[in-house]
Amino acid sequence: MPTRSTIARIWRGRTRPDIADKYEAYLKAEGIPPLEKTALGVQLFREDREQESWFTTISYWPDLDAMTAFTKGEPTKVHHLARDPEFLIELPEFIQIHRILVDRQGLR
User: Fold this and answer.
1) Integer-rounded Cα radius of gyration of the chain
2) pTM attached to this predicted model
3) Residue ranges per domain, the chain?
4) Residue 92 needs a FRET pair 20 to 30 A away by CA distance; which of 1, 69, 83, 108 works?
């Protein structure tokens, strides 16, 4: 039986619209692959607004211990990518961690 996710780790950051495409490519190349290798699942979202583009990454974990092992310590600490200061309007100061209470997909 596959392991079920019980924890979601949520990161959000924003960039200028004129460099959003470049940051998206960077996230896909550098930020997502480590999560794909370790987490049970990962999603990347983008919301384009007039003055800024928001990116949200949600990774899914079986438990807090697995997430803590990935982050090598405190799971709420932000681990910025090398080029984040170049792209982001401001560096996010925290990660949100949510317990998954309902997990249903494919509902009509």
Assistant:
1) 14
2) 0.89
3) 7-99
4) 69
